[in-house]
Structure formats: structure tokens, C-alpha cells
Design a protein that fits this description.
heterotrimer, A alpha+beta (400), B alpha+beta (69), C alpha/beta (456), B: 69 residues, alpha+beta, Alpha-Beta Plaits, two-stranded antiparallel ribbon, 2 helices, 4 strands, C: 456 residues, alpha/beta, FAD/NAD(P)-binding domain, Enolase-like, domain 1, 9 helices, 30 strands
């Protein structure tokens, strides 16, 4: 088949259970120009070079008019879709209550809470012979954690779950469809969720709790404050990303371990391998498959000139299985060394929440391991979520 | 146990600082400082940090035995 | 005869980073013969970069920076023993204490030492220190912990600047005296040296450029120094940070191409003799090596870089146990870093091999930038300040000899600044009291002739 239909085939829902043969096709093609405009890149070294190339923009406003499908109001653009120096400033402000250099011990101090939330979820499974890993475990864990971290009431989850779904759908990469409805629903959700988060934050002005929204509105340094619009956009990004990605990492992890029982047994025997196993999952079955970028000048990628303003879609999950970078890439090997995967991207946009996702995944899989030994998959492949960009099971029923 | 970070490779992702803040720290926004002798009780965290390093720049190991052959 | 090369006797002279990594690599490559590592310091291999940073701050003990091993190199360690000579015909290393050490193949990794203050009596004053070894760092850390009223640092290269940074972080008054026009100018050229000067002053360093220290004063104990501008400075501690001296004196009678700029070798780390004939049983790696680099007109490079010590040791060790066609060249592009005053400075390529420079991303005002250096229309180096994630892009441009100035389009380029290169203003190193940690030393392997070829 011609490579100019690759994006259409990758984003086709029928490809969700196993997109990897298409990714191999993409790597073989080098850079694949798509019929609808845009270029796909799937080779590891090309992707890494692009993620470190200052002429590659994350800002959708740099997409040339004929290719610009989705328009986002300027004030709703969060740092994930901005370039430096604006990106650097906003990410730095968002980092203040979350990590180094201002709050280096913040996440480490949450390990106990995360373990406790995990334990409570595990206890809730007691006595049941069939569970859905997604609904019973992989989804509630990161949602509860991100709610505590940000200071969002857990009981509001049914409300923001819908907003989040619309926002994710809005951000997804799709081929050949009219985006008008997605755009309308996504824009509305962004506005409503932003307003909701700003209201929550405002209530803590002057009497802060130990949460990030409190920290944002009570920042003493004027140079360290977010505007109201920035607070809304940043809060939305953190809440959405905080519970739409780790769910995939944990669910993909359980699925992969149940498909590789020898490795499951090995991890039980050697728990010291768990951190490496999570890295290998991020390579082998990453939660984020696609990222979109735009060149600010005509650039050369693997011998092809990609014109300024034409969208570039980086298939991170294809790079993760590139045999030119990884030895025996189709093998799931928790003891793999030299694992510089693209599971969290690379360069200045490297995933903000990566350390949180790691702690959650290690805690979750470590706690589940003893129960998975006798478990079986009810459905393989399981039903997947719609999106191609954030790929993971919608449900993962298992028999205990 | 000892650690050394290949700061030639380090790009300042600071994943090690999040995961083992008693051992690694940022000096300013990007410069990494660390304790080369892993303190008691920090080895698990240091191993997590080494696994998580996006450029795989952290080496954890025993000091070389220069005593009897 | 690869089987033969994996056996026999290998001696490594130098027990620091390069010596350790070479020993490990030899074993990884299947060397099963006897391996002896000689080091003049009594300590097991340790890491030096923390000595001018965490150690001076008192956060890490000076002798707690021992390097982790990648594997047990199964070597006979002769520590606290100085190599005094080499007999290349009898294939023996002469030692300060006892029997000569026979070898089949030899790796020289004796590195550098701190350049001492030229007046021996003044250098012997209590309170006059250098910083190279862990013992040095222990002494200096102890002095800093005692709360001196003022520290004088002579030389504003990377080490001197890092020491000044540590002093200010500890709240200690510090004066930096530099003969050149600005700190780091010998390594980074004019534009970034202005950033460095501003940074030091903003952090309260008493920075004095364009002056030399003419005498160190004291009566047994250091009390101050005379400067060439006629002034006198009172201080309790003086750190001599005037660069490094290659440890090649012990090779003076060896007939090898060893001189003040280092020990010359080919691209495969094989040492040249004084006639420019390559040997096949003596190899060199690390700070003491001078090696030709194709990206810099095949001039001989002398580097004082951590990453080069590792990469070159690995290539040398591989080649020591590999037959000719399996040998590898050492082609790594120089990379180094320094952290000072809260900034992370990283460099790739050879900034002094340049005639022009421009700020391609960020700006001096923000304290975060990428400076790109060009020489006759191609990119030869890049330096990042708190923007290390972009460095590998520029490394690719250097490796492919991409045109200078780089093409437009960087998202965070500043108009005007990014469009117009300015002269890189790399001064003649003879006018500085700090050296670049990367130096081009001409084409000749000869030990007496080591010509410095200024760029431009």
C-alpha cells in the first residue's frame, strides 16, 4: 500500500490493537508524505533530532493556513503548545510547586500517599473474581493522585471526566474528517474546566492548602505568578494530562505482563527490576504514540525537504521500536539496558509529569504483581480507547 | 555504593532530583549536583533515578577494589 | 592474531578516570592477561569535577568522590607509586620505589597537575593552595570552612570561576585576579566572557581583570598579594588557578613525542616517537594526550575534559587488544561543562577555533542562550548557558561542517542578535593567566615543537 495513506491507516480505529506493523512500514519509508498534507516521521534518530531542533515549533499557530484544522483561542494555549521563551517561562512557573529547583522533594514526599491510595484500591478488589483493570484500578489511581496534588475535589470527577474526554478528543490527531464538532465541544470544555479550576484556586487565595492550585494563587513573588488565563490553561493541562496518560501506562503494563508471563514471574522474583520494567513499558507500549510539530523553516528530514508550516507528525512509538536504535526491539525485556526510549518525548517538551507517572506505575504494578500471577485476560486484544495519540485499553477485564 | 553522573550527557531533565531529592539537586535551573557516596537508605531511590534518566547518564556501582588482587 | 592480543602483560600508568575506564574496557574486550595500574596518588580512582563544587561547599567530603566501577577490572593496583621513566626498548616502566614493571603493551594516562605559582618560596606560604587532587580539595574546603575574611583566586578560567562561585555561595568575600580582559575568555571568547564577568560581579565577586599578581606576601602565613596596578590586597587564602601542566616529564628520556602540550598520538591513540613514527605498543588517553582531529584541520587537540578521558580510554583500550583492521579512531567532538553561579555552561566543539560568534537562541539578558561559533563560514562550536537540551542539535551541525551562520528559524531567536555574527575575539592564550581546557596545538607530533595556532 502507498505510504501516503499511513496516517489514515494508523488513526483508523481498527489499527488500535496493533499499530506496530504500520510503524515498521513508516520506518522503512523514512519520511512519509500524506495525501491530506503533512509528513510522518517514525525513525528514532530522526525523531530525536527533530525534538532537539530549535526550528521545530510546538505552537499550532505556526501551521500554514491550508493545513490548519483546529483553531484554539490564544488564551487557552498551555505551555505544551508554546515555544520558548513563552514555554520556558510558563513551564517554569508551573514547576514551582511541583519539582526542582523550588520544590525538589514534593513528589518524593507523596510516595506514602500514593502507596496508600493503591492499597485501598487493591483492598476494594478483595473477593472479586473478575475485575476491569482500567475502571477498578488504572483510572482511579492517577485521578485520585492528581486531585490531591492539584487540590481538586475527587467527588467532582464525573464532571471533569467529560470535559477531559472532549479536550482529549479535540487534541487527538485524526485523518480526513471535519473537525468542526470536535472543535466546538473541545473549546467549550476547555473554557468550562478552566473556569472551574480558577474558581477552586480563588477560594484558596489567602488561606492556602498543601496543593498546587493554592500555591499558584498564593505565590509571593510577583514574577512567579500566573495570570488568570495562564492559571486556567495550566490547570487544565495538568488535570487532563495527569489522568489521561498514566491510566494507559498502568493498563498497558498489566496487559503486557499478562502477555509475557515469564517476565511477570521474573519481576515477582526480582522486584529490583521494577523501575527498569516501567522504562521498558514506556518504550514497548507507551501511553503517548503521536506528537505534532511544525517547522519554522524548510528543513531536511532523512533526505526529504519538509516545507515551513507543514505539519510534522512524530510517531514516538515507532521510534521506540526502531531496530537501528534498540537491540531486538520487538522483545519486551524489563532488564534492557541503554533504554533511551521516547515514552516521555525528549528535549524541552519532555513530559512535565514524567516522575509522577513513574512513581504511580511502579507503585501500581508492584502492588498488582502478586495478584496477576494467577490471573488471565478475558479478552485479548481488549477494547481500546478511540484515540490514536493516547493509546490504551478502554477496558481490561481479567479473571483473578 | 557510589554514583557518578556523566554530565557530558546530562541535559538537565532533573528526573533524578524528583526521584531521589536527598542525593541529587539542581543548582539554578539546570546544573546538577549530587552526593557521589550514596547515603544509607537511599539506594532504592538512586536506582530508580538511574533507570529513569532520559539520557542514561547515571552509573551506580561499587568503588573499585584496589586492595589485594 | 587476536588471541595473542587478549593475553600478555598490560600496564596502565595513571589511576584516575581514564585509567579506570581503560582497565574496565580491556576486560570487557576479552583481555585475560595480567593488568597492572600504577597511580601516584594513594587513593582509588576518584571523580574530580565535584572537588571544585560540592566538596568546597562542604556538602561532600573530599575523599568521598571515589568512582563506581562498571565492572571489576581484576587489576593489580600499585597506588601511591610514581612512574619515573620509561624504557621502550626493554619494555619496562621505571618506578620510584623498586623493580621496573615489564609490559607487552602500555597505556599512558598520567593526566595533568595544577600549574604551581612560579615563585617557590611564595608558593610555600601557608594558605597558598592549588586545586587538582582530592587532597588539595580537602585542604581548601577546610580553609573555606574556617571562614576566611577574603579569598584571592588567581586565574579566571573554569576552575578559578567555580572556586569563586563556591566562595560566594558560602558567603565568603572573594577577589578574582585575571591577566586577560575577562573570565573564561580563553575558552569562550569575547561575547560570553562579558556574560561571565557580569555574572561574577552580580554575585559579589571582586573581579579584577587586566592585572597580574606580582607577589604573594606573608611571613610564613599568606596575608595578601601585590597587584600589577600598584594595589595591595589583603586575604587569608590564595588559590592558584592558572591552568594545568601535563605530566610528561617522566617521559623526557623515553624517545616519545612528549612535551609541555602533551604526548602526541595518532587517531587510534598510538603514541608517536620523537621522529613522528607511530609506535604499536604504547598508547595514550585522557588529559595528557594530544591527538589529531579531522574537524579541526587535523590539528593536534589537547583536552582537559571528563568526557574525552572516558571516550579516549575506551578507544585506546579497544585498540590495545584488537588487530589493525578492527581498530577504531577517536573522533569524538569535544564536550565539556561547568556550573557556576547557578548557571550550567556546556560547550561542544572548539570555541577557540573560530573567527565569529552569534547568539542563536535566547539572550545574555535572560542568562540563557546558545552561542554558535564559526570559522571561515562553517560551524565549529556551540556553547549553551542553561539551555543544554539544544546542544545536540548544534553538535550535529559541527559534525557535518554545516555553514555558519546557521540558517534562520529558531523559535526563540532574538531579531538582530541572531542575525549578525560578531568577531569571536579569542585572545592569544599567552596573555591570560587561565588556559582554555581545549587547545589546538599544531600539526607536529614533535615533542619540542608544539605550536599554538591562534584562530583567525
Amino acid at each position: 500500500m502507498a505510504v501516503d495513506s499511513l496516517l489514515e491507516r494508523i488513526t483508523d480505529y481498527a489499527s488500535r490493537p496493533d499499530p506496530y506493523p504500520l510503524y515498521a512500514e513508516l520506518r522503512a519509508a523514512g519520511v512519509a508524505r500524506q495525501a491530506g498534507g503533512g509528513y510522518l516521521v517514525g525513525a528514532y534518530h530522526d525523531i530525536v533530532a527533530l525534538l532537539h531542533d530549535p526550528r521545530i515549533s510546538s505552537d499550532p499557530r505556526n501551521i500554514a493556513a491550508p493545513y490548519r484544522a483546529l483553531v484554539q483561542p490564544e488564551e487557552q494555549i498551555s505551555f505544551i503548545r508554546l515555544d520558548d521563551p513563552a514555554h520556558h517561562r510558563l513551564r517554569g512557573l508551573a514547576m514551582r510547586p511541583f519539582g526542582p529547583p523550588h520544590s525538589p522533594g514534593r513528589l518524593d514526599a507523596m510516595r506514602g500517599q500514593i502507596a496508600q491510595i493503591t492499597e485501598e484500591l487493591i483492598e476494594g478488589l478483595a473477593g472479586r473474581s473478575r475485575i476491569d483493570i482500567v475502571e477498578d484500578f488504572a483510572y482511579p489511581l492517577p485521578v485520585t493522585v492528581i486531585c490531591r496534588l492539584l487540590g481538586v475535589p475527587r467527588e467532582d470527577e464525573p464532571v471533569f471526566r467529560e470535559w477531559s474526554a472532549a479536550i482529549i478528543d479535540f487534541a487527538d490527531i485524526k485523518a480526513g474528517e471535519d473537525p468542526a464538532e470536535r472543535q466546538r465541544a473541545g473549546g467549550q470544555a476547555l473554557t468550562e474546566m478552566g473556569r472551574y479550576l480558577v474558581d477552586l484556586a480563588e477560594r484558596r487565595r489567602g488561606h492556602p492548602g498543601d496543593d498546587m492550585l493554592s500555591a499558584f494563587v498564593n505565590e509571593p513573588d510577583p514574577a512567579g505568578r500566573l495570570t488568570r488565563e495562564e492559571l486556567a490553561a495550566t490547570g487544565v493541562l495538568l488535570l487532563v494530562a495527569g489522568h489521561e496518560t498514566t491510566v494507559n501506562l498502568i493498563a498497558n503494563g498489566v496487559l503486557t505482563l499478562l502477555r509475557h508471563r515469564d517476565q511477570l514471574e521474573r519481576l515477582r522474583r526480582e522486584p529490583g527490576l521494577l523501575p527498569g520494567a516501567v522504562e521498558e513499558l514506556l518504550r514497548y507500549e507507551p501511553p503517548v504514540h503521536l506528537r505534532q510539530r511544525t517547522p519554522l523553516a524548510n528543513i531536511e528530514v532523512a533526505g526529504t525537504t519538509v516545507p515551513k508550516g507543514v505539519p510534522l507528525i512524530l510517531v514516538l512509538a515507532a521510534g521506540n521500536r526502531d531496530p537501528k536504535r534498540f537491540h531486538d526491539p520487538e522483545r519486551f525485556d524489563p532488564a534492557r539496558t541503554d533504554n533511551q526510549h521516547l515514552g516521555f518525548g525528549s528535549g524541552v517538551h519532555h513530559c512535565y509529569g514524567a516522575p509522577l507517572a513513574r512513581i504511580e506505575a511502579q507503585t501500581a504494578l508492584g502492588a498488582l504483581l502478586p495478584r496477576l500471577v494467577g490471573a488471565t485476560l478475558v479478552q485479548d486484544p481488549p477494547p481500546y480507547r478511540r484515540g490514536a495519540m493516547l493509546r490504551g485499553p478502554r477496558h481490561l477485564p481479567i479473571e483473578l | 555504593m557510589r554514583i557518578v553522573v556523566d554530565l557530558t550527557r546530562c541535559q538537565g531533565y532533573a528526573q533524578c532530583v524528583f526521584l531521589a531529592p536527598q542525593v541529587f539537586e539542581l543548582h539554578g535551573e539546570e546544573a546538577l549536583r549530587y552526593d557521589p557516596a550514596v547515603p544509607d537508605g537511599q539506594l532504592d531511590r538512586v536506582r530508580q533515578a538511574a533507570a529513569a534518566c532520559p539520557v542514561q547518564a547515571i552509573l551506580v556501582g561499587e568503588q573499585v577494589n584496589t586492595g589485594a588482587r | 592474531m587476536p588471541g595473542d592480543l587478549r593475553q600478555g602483560r598490560i600496564v596502565i600508568v595513571g589511576a584516575s578516570l581514564a585509567g579506570l575506564r581503560a582497565a574496565e574496557t580491556l576486560r570487557e574486550a576479552g583481555f585475560t592477561g595480567s593488568l597492572t595500574v600504577v597511580g601516584d596518588e594513594p587513593h582509588p580512582p576518584y571523580d574530580r569535577p565535584p572537588l571544585s563544587k560540592q566538596v568546597l561547599l562542604g556538602r561532600v567530603a573530599a575523599h568521598a568522590t571515589a568512582l563506581p566501577a562498571r565492572r571489576d577490572p581484576d587489576a593489580d593496583w600499585r597506588l601511591g607509586v610514581r612512574a619515573t621513566g620509561l624504557d621502550p626498548i626493554g619494555k619496562r616502566v621505571l618506578l620510584a620505589d623498586g623493580e621496573p614493571l615489564p609490559y607487552d603493551r602500555l597505556l599512558i594516562a598520567t593526566g595533568t597537575r595544577a600549574r604551581p605559582w612560579p615563585d617557590q618560596a611564595q608558593a610555600a606560604l601557608d594558605g597558598v593552595l592549588t586545586l587538582r587532587t582530592s587532597d588539595d580539595a580537602a585542604h581548601l574546603a577546610e580553609r573555606l570552612a574556617a571562614g576566611p575574611r577574603r579569598v584571592l583566586v588567581i586565574g579566571a578560567g573554569f576552575t578559578g570561576s567555580e572556586i569563586a562561585s563556591a566562595c560566594r555561595e558560602l558567603g565568603i568575600e572573594v577577589t578574582v585576579a585575571e591577566r586577560g580582559p575577562a573570565p573564561l575568555v580563553g575558552a569562550l571568547g569575547g561575547t560570553l566572557s562579558q556574560l561571565a564577568a557580569g555574572l561574577q560581579r552580580a554575585h559579589g565577586v571582586d573581579l579584577r581583570c587586566g592585572v597580574t599578581v606580582t607577589a604573594l606576601r606573608g611571613d610564613g602565613r599568606f596575608t595578601g598579594a601585590d597587584l600589577s596596578d600598584g594595589s595591595h590586597l589583603e586575604a587569608d587564602v590564595c588559590v592558584i588557578a592558572m591552568g594545568a601542566v601535563r605530566n610528561t616529564e617522566w617521559l623526557a628520556d623515553s624517545g616519545l613525542a612528549a612535551g609541555p602540550r602533551g604526548l602526541a598520538c595518532d587517531a587510534g591513540c598510538r603514541v608517536f616517537d620523537q621522529y613522528g613514527i607511530v609506535t604499536d605498543d604504547v598508547f595514550v588517553a585522557g588529559d595528557v594526550a594530544r591527538f589529531p582531529h579531522p574537524l579541526f584541520e587535523y590539528q593536534m587537540l589537547s583536552l582537559e575534559h571528563w568526557g574525552n578521558a572516558v571516550a579516549q580510554a575506551e578507544v585506546a583500550a579497544h585498540n590495545m587488544v584488537s588487530p589493525g583492521p578492527s581498530r577504531r579512531p577517536h573522533l569524538a567532538v569535544p564536550v565539556f561543562w561547568s556550573s557556576q553561579f547557578g548557571l550550567n555552561i556546556k560547550s561542544v566543539g572548539v570555541p577557540t577555533f573560530s573567527d565569529q560568534v552569534l547568539i542563536a537562541q535566547g539572550s545574555i539578558a535572560e542568562g540563557r542562550l546558545v552561542a554558535v561559533y564559526g570559522y571561515r563560514g562553517r560551524i565549529t562550536a556551540a556553547v549553551t548557558v542553561n539551555m543544554a537540551k539544544w546542544l545536540e542539535h548544534y553538535q550535529g551541525l559541527i559534525e557535518t561542517a554545516a555553514p555558519f551562520p546557521p540558517g534562520p528559524g529558531a523559535a526563540d531567536a532574538r531579531p538582530l542578535v541572531a542575525d549578525f555574527p560578531v568577531p569571536s575575539n579569542v585572545p592569544d592564550p599567552r596573555g591570560l593567566c587561565h588556559g582554555p581546557t581545549v587547545a589546538l596545538t599544531g600539526h607536529l607530533p614533535d615533542r619540542r615543537l608544539s605550536v599554538v595556532r591562534p584562530a583567525g
